[in-house]
Amino acid sequence: MSAPDYILEASALKRQFEVAKPLFGKAKVVRAVDGVDLKIARGETFAIVGESGCGKSTLARLLVRLMTPTDGAVIYEGRNIASIPEQEMRDLRRELQFIFQDPFSSLNPRMTVGALIEEPMRVHRIGTVAQRREKVAALLSRVGLSPQIADRYPHEFSGGQRQRVGIARALASGPKVLIGDEPVSALDVSIQAQVVNILEDLKQEFGLTLVVIAHDLAVVRHMADRVAVMYLGEIVELAPVDALFDAPRHPYTAALIAAIPVPQVGARKATAKLEGDPPNPIDLPTGCRFHPRCPHATDLCRTSKPTLRARDAGGQVACHYADELTLDGLSAGSDTRSDAANARFEIYRAARARSEGANAPATTTT
Amino acid sequence: MSAPLLDVKGLSVRIAGTSRDLVADVSFTLHPGETLCVVGESGCGKSLTALSLMGLLASPPLSVTGGEALFDGRDLLQMPLDQLQALRGDRMAMIFQEPMTSLNPALRVGDQIAESVQRHQGVSAKAARARALEMLRRVGIPAPESRLDAYPHNLSGGMRQRVMIAMALANDPALLLADEPTTALDVTIQAQILALMRDLQAQSGSAMILITHDLGVVAEMADKVAVMYAGRIVEFGTVAQIFEDPQHPYTIGLMSSMPTLGQRVARLVTIPGVVPQASQMPPGCRFASRCPFANASCAKTPDMTEVATGHRVACWQVPLEAGIDQRVSA
């Protein structure tokens, strides 16, 4: 990218939740998102990763104002959507759509699949009734479902099919940005692969910008162009996907990568580089928030908080020792298959391609 | 090789009022110290297989309709309840996926561990509590003395899973069944728990059946692997055979559906469609409706055939490369 064209930006973004308000004294707050700066380029797939409670889902909701920030700004196409009136935001929603993790609880069980997909168009007064009906059918076949199911209800479908309905609904209003909060993590492996392919195809076809929140690093490695790693409400590292996985600069990123079990016999074992659990987000550690679990922590880390600064490959990292530490990424060839296995995969791929070609494109389910 | 610890033959499970088996003709053997990973997607019967072995099927409506499971030479499937209860938690133990719902929220964790020690070893309350403390220490819980009196809700998910493991191993079981023990955990915690399970197993020499959907966990933990699809084992072999010489189209499809961590591929090669519902299970090969190699012969249920020593596959088209020329010309 020569001149980066940013479609969505967060600037010093903060969101706090009050968890317990004592009768006297100050309320306790969780700083779920605590000063996040990021810029998402038009047309890229941007991933946000981290463990439970790191604030990644809160950040996703702030980016489309499903939640209002405590402080800071979210700039979409040059406008601060954190502070515009609700009515204006409602109009913008057609351009910023959200896919939820759980396809069981995010679709209204009393609405038919057709009504669910039509609703965003109705709300935004897009098209006539007939045009909308046509669009619903087109969207359904686009996500690999039969248009005939429009009269059926969500409970009649499997998790993967419901997630496709959720994607069709998100696409209905013609969005520019699609944000998925763990869009495939509730799905079985074979179904997950189908949905990942659909998201990538749709991104190409409609020129979407994708923001994916995920904890599955293999999925992120496959889908993302750039990745931000969050820990306790802050971004600790942000880099292009290959630079992040092959040469992490933050010890937390390295620990996440080391913990991935590799699906290959004799590959390096997943190692637990981290002791203990993430600390309580109410009583945050002093200095670097990661220091209690960091194998490289020094006195400096216990007292002084590192700021996000430039790293190589156009990335950023928040670690005092980013330049000195040698951290392991995914070692090259750590996931190579045997020749026999590769030959089988090739036969399978060819057979799939042939059977796809034999089917009408509208009814294929990949 | 020594006699197997567990010898399962033709295990079948059915839901009342239907004629299709949710678990169909599942057979495998397990030797002391071995880890068998059972891998498959939701509804493939992997959890039902484990629950039938433990005598924990929700019965009715589920019931074992056939087969035997010889554990130390005694059939678990025919065993009277009192004998089974004497075995469970003692010679065989189970770790469940969700430690929050499988620990008693109203009991202190030390008491929960001690309860099973007292029940099976008949020791004093004091000795049982000492054993509980020792187990908490062995599973790496910091400050175990103070954790004995903690309630499950005081602990994090990773700590709760450690308590589950401590409880399961408290009586040195010969067989451990673990149903998705790390699925609910974050990846760094998962790595801790897997390492712990490996270490403890190496110390105790117990056999383990590990149920998972994650092929990465399989590659890391397994000696042997059973790949299940729609209630049947479709491929069985050593971990090297399954990963380096996968034979069944489902095994291959599952592996190619997973994004790799190495070279990025442009597009994932998927398995089309979805698992047929139990009520609509096709006769013959249950994978045929999703299989790119299926032909007329697949209308008949494929036999398990041995393609190499200990490597068995249930597919008429195996080896796939043999049939490729005819298919291309067809």
Automatic annotation (TrEMBL), chain A:
GO terms for biological process: peptide transport; transmembrane transport. Residues 14-257 form the ABC transporter domain. It is a peripheral membrane protein. One of its GO terms (molecular function) is ATP binding. GO terms for cellular component: plasma membrane. PROSITE patterns: ABC_TRANSPORTER_1 (PS00211), ABC_TRANSPORTER_2 (PS50893). CDD domains: ABC_NikE_OppD_transporters. SMART domains: AAA. Keywords: ATP-binding, Nucleotide-binding, Transport. InterPro entries: AAA+_ATPase (IPR003593), ABC_transp_ATP-bind (IPR050319), ABC_transporter-like_ATP-bd (IPR003439), ABC_transporter-like_CS (IPR017871), Oligopep_ABC_C (IPR013563), P-loop_NTPase (IPR027417). It is found in: Cell inner membrane. NCBIfam families: oligo_HPY (TIGR01727), PRK11308.1 (NF008453). Belongs to the ABC transporter superfamily. This is Oligopeptide/dipeptide ABC transporter ATP-binding protein.
Automatic annotation (TrEMBL), chain B:
CDD domains: ABC_NikE_OppD_transporters. Pfam families: ABC_tran, oligo_HPY. Residues 8-255 form the ABC transporter domain. One of its GO terms (biological process) is transmembrane transport. It is found in: Cell inner membrane. Coiled coil: none annotated. GO terms for molecular function: ATP binding; ATP hydrolysis activity. It is a peripheral membrane protein. Its main location: membrane. One of its GO terms (cellular component) is plasma membrane. Keywords: ATP-binding, Cell membrane, Membrane, Nucleotide-binding, Transport. PANTHER family: DIPEPTIDE TRANSPORT ATP-BINDING PROTEIN DPPD, OLIGOPEPTIDE TRANSPORT ATP-BINDING PROTEIN APPD. Belongs to the ABC transporter superfamily. This is Oligopeptide/dipeptide ABC transporter ATP-binding protein.
